[in-house]
């Protein structure tokens, strides 16, 4: 009895609450609509017509831009030169290339290329003489051969409407010819790209946007010719159309043969076209009256539906609450007593405790998450963290232990091809052990470098005044000995200099990269220290070679700060040396050569616009300024290209997984084959970008799809499981319960 009374009281509260929530805004909304609908509806309809017309304009402009872009690409395509397209052997490839260009646009009916002083015209179906083109392939009622040849020699792009075109002796079609000179924007083009577009294609584009619009829409070119039209009102004749004022813009009322029309006009600044919509004014007001009646009918229906919905929602709202209350009291737990006669309060307190525990667990998992740790260490290597307080806070929150003394970076390079698909597990095990290697009086943290088979170790050691370099060498030998004992590989190790601040770790990283330029001259298993590469004859020129290598590596890494600092140090050393003019010039030209060579290797030669100005320097200060500006530009471009490449690759791979996750055959091997990458690289890349393994990421996608279908469809559990890519239903059920906490059937019942 008590339980039923509680249920009734809670149900009553829900019904009243829903009625209040519905009625208050409903009454306010109804009043506003009633007094303002008539006054504002006409303006809204007019604005809607303008918006639709502007959509037609925007869509048309986009399609014309696509055609301009295609013409520009064709003009610079080496496979579509006059020689290639007319060549007996290469013409087939050229025609196939034209077909690809045609496929890039959804509105092109046919694509042609004509070169001046050539008697043939080329299309995706082959080449025709102009005579055959005019008589066999196409027959034009309003376009003669002389006009065609004249138009094909145009120097500016233009559009020509062509009425009643017979194609292959079939029925008449109205076409639109868009002629674009080759090369674009040239005063002396050597040919023309011509597109044929069916007028019905443009009409369909217009109609798709306008929907149920009852009037007519016309597109006029700059010569006031109708390019395309959508005619729903056949009573408007062409003669009436020509009598329309040409200077109207926006919404206006016009009179045609004694009949009033509503006219909407939009001009395109891009193409110079005019878009006009005409509708019978009587039809307009009829729509207004009908809409007003419809609004009242809808309001009344909403009022009735609101009352019914409030009762139904109140009635069924209690059912899931009861289920939740029973869940909190089952499985042998202590029965929770009703507080204040309301199950909601009891459920709220229970769920609050659960969420508090879950929040603590999530925070702990996040702090220990390897992905967050790896991202932090990568930022240290790249020099993205420059503030000591920020680094200290991140070390603490991520629970990463580092000594407060000296820091250096060692890069462990394995022999190319050391790891293949057959020993990926061995590689992952080795890299995992290196990322958490234990050293005496020091800590080491590994970062998997996605390029090649290499790992970077950030080593921190205690503060030492005089024996820091000796201790560093001992630590490197420990690392080398550990690798040899752990696996059968003997990698080359490049070691950068040590620094006293954590925000300078990226300097040591670049130095370590610089040392590895010499790994080809050293036997496998060597240890190369950055300071040792300076023991070379080049020292006699006035600056240590390690600065040159450091500059090259900083350019390759896109590190503006280190590159600028290294260049400044090199020129400062030159200024401090008492060298002859000849030696100074030789050194300067060597610096220029290093930068130019590195820039060329990276494919960025275009940024050296004025090589003569760089080489023809008048002073060391002038050269320093010019090179400083150049390396900043190069570093920025390298950094941007890295980010762009990683973003595109990440998006492509993740999009492919999301599109094919329900394919049972989806695997790391198939992904690697699809994107032409190694299996190990794909595995590490997905882990680096998502924070989880490929298997876990795939399982998460499939789990979410299963949960969605369990809630939204009535499909059997077996069909859903097979559809998302699992073949073993029983195994999946166990996995689902382990992840979600309930079986698929229980999950469906709880979410219905």
TrEMBL record:
Residues 651-750 form the HTH araC/xylS-type domain. SMART domains: HTH_ARAC (SM00342). Pfam families: HTH_18 (PF12833). The keyword Coiled coil applies. Residues 42-70 form a coiled coil. The chain crosses the membrane at residues 12-35, 293-313. Keywords: Coiled coil, DNA-binding, Membrane, Transcription, Transcription regulation, Transmembrane, Transmembrane helix. SUPFAM superfamilies: Homeodomain-like (SSF46689). The keyword Isomerase does not apply. This is Helix-turn-helix domain-containing protein. It comes from Metabacillus bambusae. The lineage of its organism: Bacteria, Bacillati, Bacillota, Bacilli, Bacillales.
